[in-house]
């Protein structure tokens, strides 16, 4: 009913790290004290960029508590919502991403705003900005029915009851709030700092940001860790609800690396930094990915600016109502390709017709860097391009995009794997909007390999959704946790809490499905997850388990082609990478699999951008029996194969240190013809050289070693 729960119905999504009232995390009262004994642990946590405030965590379980995110059995549409509101004679305004209606939780005579209740057009979730009451579409319907039956003008906000908090949960919430208050009260405004201390923290806050701007946004300095403190004010009384601490360090290359810690933790931190300074009459806002960028935009342009709580990784739908008042939203999330791609995805949520995007480039870096270089930020904002475009474009409109890809080839190639560098040399990276087909013999370790491949990306911030239809989520999570810890935790149970807490922080979600499922249900869940959690990577294991409930045709190949087409369309339209595991046809044990070995028709390999095959020599028991082969690469055509060694204790795959992967490019037709013509004389020359060498060897004596004595003897 509250944040973290969605509509009642079929359980479809399960998150690794659910919200705090689902998986209570209790911080020790000694985790943070304002004395010198606590400074070292705090510095260490900031140093490793941890998002967990305390290093002492007590695990607590509650069996009767929901731990799933749900979608309705019959998804709601905006047409259904409008029809229902009209039937209840409730006036509404059609906004960009929400419908605006008068709040039913406030007396009409005391309302400050005529339409302060917002209903999400996609999910039906509602939020009252005046009372902060929120819930599902079914909850809102129940409230309206009660009002009509009881003939009331408004309802008490406490009519919606969530799950009762346990004593431990209440203590945790109070402890977090107490920590927030202690840190905030101990922080010092920049205007009160001595000149020496102010210069010392300029590594975090460059000279470009003035003390007046820091004071305007309420930014302070926490001296024990030399961190900037960004406050989160919210609620009807604008009380302090949380903080973010930002520290910085210089890398060996001279760049500044930022580390941040939020209280409460990241999954419960919904602060649109800068929102309290926005006037209700403002119609334009600049949306940034960092608090420092918001400070730079506000200081240089004077425009309202807010920062997303999780940067370019996610735009939670619960924040959309707070952005409804703006007729123009300029997204300037950063200066790299990843921020540019996130801007285009977020623009769909916000409404394409009001969004403008700042294209990253040499002369348009992130706002803070642009301010430091002396760029004109007002000119950059005005030069932003509209997010909406026509169906037909000319090269003039594509010219800047093409140049951007040429300049940032490494970023365009996608996210690099850290555990599989050989795969980077072939595929170049993991890119959004692509479809990867993966196959391998039965029992070769397809699920184990793909789980590590996806885990590698997830550890780098790629929001991942797992659909495991062959093995249950508990077993899959156990495999991934073992791969994450790189060791068998059943032999070191005392370390389980440490690794489990770190694993919880990953942006990893699971579909609560097992066995055969209808493709429409699976697709609805995927679309729901992309909207709610900005999923970038979906793994489906495997295709054959979805082919039981389809009535399109008696031909199973036609059913499979239809499903593959659906996934292809989803990957393109949602700008999300889909990895699809397909079992191969039955082949002889002594034969290697090929692209044609994929079960079904040729549509799977035709629609796929990448085709990966896990090869296994079943008749061989020595190391090197497995290898990964890339047989299709639509990005640049590089294909090849490299060996893999399976490390059983950690359930991970690695490449032998002395191995050399075979890398080859698909030859063009002209190259193929030249090769055929040039092979004939080379073969003849090779035969002649071989004959000559044989004749010389027959005439000259050979020196060989005696295995018994080790000395050389001459054979005539």
CATH class of the largest domain: Alpha Beta
Overall mean pLDDT? 79
Which class best fits the helix and strand makeup? alpha+beta
| Helix run count | 20
Helix content: 25-40%
Proportion of strand residues: 15-25%
Return the CATH architecture of the largest domain.
Answer: 3-Layer(aba) Sandwich
CATH topology of the largest domain: Rossmann fold
- Gap from first CA to last CA: 93 Å
Number of domains: 4
Shape designation: globular
- Give the CATH H-level superfamily of the largest domain: P-loop containing nucleotide triphosphate hydrolases
Could you tell me the radius of gyration in angstroms? 30 Å
| Largest sheet composition | 12 strands, mixed
By DSSP, the count of extended strands is 31
Unreliable residue stretches:
1-12, 17-69, 658-666, 668-684, 693-716
Pfam families: AAA_25
Domain SF4 helicase: 409-660
EC number: 5.6.2.3
Membrane topology: Peripheral membrane protein
